[in-house]
Amino acid sequence: MLRVAIDGPGGTGKSTIAKAVAVRFGLEYIDTGAMYRAIALKSVRTGVPADDVEAVTSMLETTTIDFSDNHVYLDGEDVSGLIRTNEISMRASDISKLPVVRAKVDAVSRHIASVKSVVMEGRDICTEVLPDAEVKIFMTAAPEIRARRRYNQLLEAGKPADYDQIFDEIQKRDYQDSHRDYHPLRQAEDAEFLDTSYMTIDENIDAIAAIINEKTGNTAV
Ligand code: DC
Question: Would you say residue 69 has pLDDT above 70?
Fold first, then answer.
């Protein structure tokens, strides 16, 4: 079994990079943020406030979450195409503060990693979800650079984009994700630090492949 754990703030390109690493090493790719986003979507749909612990707890009692083949399932429905909005990003950051929500996502994530070799990315994978992972990486980039990448992505997709607004949202989510009481985003002491600010996507993938080779002797398939 090989478990590659990647943590880092939002907009760092973790998903793009982790997917490519999964293909190269024949691993299952698990996006834990997508599961928090699916729970956030349900709370928006059902009008359950993200800070109402009792209401969120009872909502979760009748909620199933799963992640496979790059898709996230909420109560059996593929919601992958519905969770990449600003509203859901902020709601996911809000609702992920609750231990009851984290327990739900952690249970699904740990189960998958117990039956498959994985590359799993999120905020607390190295620190809490898979602290025994063979490879642990903390990936980050300067907030201005993450905002610029996101801004360019939106423009290329022909969507409206406001750099200042994107930058503000990135900073707000960074603060919230790293200052919550329970399982905040932080670098695990034994995680490799990777600043991708000035790396291309290919350089970033190669850097992670090199860390995997160094830690495990595993060479890409
Ligand atoms: O990686 P992402 O942007 O899709 O994550 C959305 C939100 O979910 C993020 O702002 C905080 C939360 N999250 C978390 O608390 N722990 C994780 N392991 C992954 C995401």
Answer: yes
Q: How far, in Å, from the CA of 30 to the mean position of ligand 1?
A: 12
Quote the pTM value: 0.97
Q: Is the CB of 39 under 6 A from ligand 1?
A: no
How many C-beta atoms surround the C-beta of residue 47 within 10 A?
A: 7
Q: Which atom of ligand 1 is nearest to the CA of 36?
A: 8
* Ligand 1 pocket, residue 174 CB under 6 Å: no
**Domain for residue 90, yes or no?**
yes
* Domains in the chain, number: 1
What is the 207 CA–ligand 1 centroid distance (Å)? 23
Where does the pLDDT of residue 148 fall: very low under 50, low under 70, confident under 90, or very high at 90 and above? very high
Secondary element (H or E) of residue 187: none
Residue with tokens 């599961």: 35
pLDDT band with cut points at 50, 70 and 90 for residue 192: very high
Helix or strand run (H / E) with residue 72: strand 71-74
Q: In this predicted structure, what is the pLDDT of residue 184?
A: 98
Q: Given ligand 1 and candidates 44, 79, 82, 93, which is best to mutate, with the most ligand atoms within 8 Å of its CB?
A: 93
Q: Is residue 221 part of a domain?
A: no
Q: Which single residue is written with the structure tokens 């984009």?
A: 161
**Residue 219: inside a domain, yes or no?**
no
Mean predicted confidence (pLDDT) in 103-110: 98
